Amino acid sequence: MQEKLAEPLLEQEFAVQGGDFIHAGEVSSSIKAILKDIGMSHDIIRRVAIATYEAEMNVVCYARQAAFHLAITPDRLTVIADDEGQGIPDIELAMQEGYSTSSREIKEMGFGAGMGLQNIKKNTDELRISSVVGEGTRLEMVIFTRK
Amino acid sequence: MTFRELADILGATVVVGQDCMDVTVRDAFASDLLSDVLAFAREGTLLITGITNPQVVRTAEMLELLGIVFVRGKRPDEEAIKLARAKKIPLFCTRYIMFETCGRLFKHGLSGCIERVDDAGKTS
Q1: CB contact under 8 A, A109 and B55
Q2: In this structure, is the dihedral angle defined by the CA atoms of residues A31, A36, A37 and A39, taken in order, positive or negative?
Q3: What ipTM describes this predicted complex?
Q4: CB nearest A115 (choices: B39, B43, B54)
């Protein structure tokens, strides 16, 4: 059941490379800059920045690559993170705070505490996750821009 | 306190941000877990950490943190410094351990950006 959505005012696609820890965060940074440029409210920019950065770190830590798609319509902002990677066998389990499959290397970097998906949920109005093991994971993050 | 006072209290070296020494710091968050920083740190707060990779600077950028103090004599890596310069995020290094760093700053009037986290992960 697809909702009929208004034509996006702005749409842009970004590529995220898995395992590239040096450039990790650049896409979130670009998205943040775009939202600033178009005069999005401070609170929304912050929530989008946190959610997108968590999603981007997930790709860098666990997937091969991903496409991030940003779309802004008059009433909402959507970021879809579509990755090619190992996928998530049990999404409900992955959503539990503290659950993590991260390696020691990821933990040493300060990530992999099993809080990312929860933090994305906290900072978005809608979060849809779908995943196929061995193929990839898709996160659809929605933030309403009209209160 | 200002960054100048902070650097003085901690005997800290200024890695990035010589031109921001008059900026006022009001509160702080201390953690070696960036996941926690992303979940709990408030905008405009100071981050005290032992993590020195570029992600710590990226995290500060995303949350619009005021600056970063690296503890235990750790120095941020070159990529982190480059990114901090580009994003204008002040970086300081102190030889004090995290507990001492927090204690000394607290004694001089700095508070936590949040005080506690309840069972549901809510902050106050």
Answers
A1: yes
A2: positive
A3: 0.90
A4: B39
